[in-house]
Amino acid sequence: MDNIKDILEHNKQFVENRDYEAYISDKFPQKKMMIVTCMDTRLVELLPKAMNFRNGDVKIIKTAGAIISHPFGSAMRSILVGLYELGAKEVIVVGHHECGMAALNSDDMLHHMTERGISGEVLDTIEHSGINLKNWLRGFNNVQEGLMETVELIRNHPLLPSDVPVHGMIIDPKTGALDLLVDGNKNLAVKS
User: Fold this and answer.
1) Cα separation, 12 vs 19, whole angstroms
2) What structural domains and CATH numbers belong to the chain?
3) Fewest C-beta in 10 Å: which of 14, 60, 94, 116?
């Protein structure tokens, strides 16, 4: 199967038929929100529908497990850009039940890397440069734990404005049902 060929053929028709017109928006999130969620394929269309978001309503950042693992990495930078430059006013972290990051085993993943041609020398070089690959590739024990760590990392970031609520939710990837774990509005009073 040639996915690129299929994509380009579809895209040509999409543009010729002007199907894009249904998605016209600008770069500013109309609902003034940033969403950090998992890259799970089940959430691609389900999450926006379950949260009543349309194209242009929110900025969505997708990571494995909805995890932000470094306070000065690209995901956190994207949140700050959304807040300071694009008009977002709040952040929602949305994890999901049955997340693959809860079952991720870093030893297995390192083994898969060597099976696909990454040499032990490369892995050793990375380790000797100060990066603990087993720690970097680890998942989490449960979805709630992973969600709470990310909410806390964002909420306690030294560059986060004090008036930004950071919420935490878990979505059911089958039904779209949402559970609120952290109401960021309640935490604003504590942070001030």
Assistant:
1) 11
2) 26-104+139-191 (3.40.1050.10)
3) 116
CA 47, 49, 54 angle in degrees (round to 5)? Answer: 105
Q: What's the angle, vertex CA 64, arms to CA 62 and CA 70, rounded to 5?
A: 85
Cα–Cα distance measured from residue 153 to residue 13, given in angstroms and rounded to the nearest whole number:
43
pLDDT in tens, 152-192: 999 999 999 999 999 999 999 999 999 999 999 997 765 55
- Return the amino acid letter for 175: T
Q: Are strands 166-171 and 90-96 parallel, antiparallel or unpaired?
A: parallel
Match 């850009």 to its residue by tokens. Answer: 81
Distance CA 59, CA 90 (A): 11
Given a contact cutoff of 8 angstroms between Cβ atoms, the answer to whether 137 and 104 are in contact is yes
| CB contact burial 21-51 (16+ within 10 A = b; e otherwise) | eeeeeeeebebbbbbbbbebeebeebbbebb
